Give the backbone structure.
Amino acid sequence: EAGVAQSPRYKIIEKRQSVAFWCNPISGHATLYWYQQILGQGPKLLIQFQNNGVVDDSQLPKDRFSAERLKGVDSTLKIQPAKLEDSAVYLCASSNKGQTEADTQYFGPGTRLTVL
Amino acid sequence: AQKITQTQPGMFVQEKEAVTLDCTYDTSDPSYGLFWYKQPSSGEMIFLIYQGSYDQQNATEGRYSLNFQKARKSANLVISASQLGDSAMYFCAMRGRSWGKLQFGAGTQVVVTP
């Protein structure tokens, strides 16, 4: 079974530029998550989708970050304009259903973003 | 609010020895799940083991076992017979109510030496 796919793996941009990350979850997984992991910290949830609807985006900086999952499968996370503090690893994860505390999330390899 | 605490920033362990990684948590949810993930230098978060708050027995998965003490609100990970490939960052995480977010601790860096 194929795992969670993410691209690109690495991205370097100048501040105030825009950037987009792509994620394809495990086949059949209804729930998709985007996390931000700053160096030396644990991941922090940015947004959670259930199929193509948003379940939780309370920690998404909506003035510059946006995400979509139009057909309930793959997803795109965008940052526009980027700031220096956005330098981090962006992790995508998926899970089967999402609504129970036992639902295990499986992560992709991440995209390492550096903002100069 | 949920909180996960990992007090050990880093540990050295010799190959073939066992190591225990500490994790304490705080939640007001009556039902919750506890997870451990491994993050090697490549960056991917790898799921290791899960423990449900109502599970009667401690979870085990191969060389990984979870020492769950509900009254103490602790969920320590035990890795038996350490291997060089176990060198990585280890994160404890918790998920409470339905649809609740996965809350991660700060992680513990484990280095296995020959």
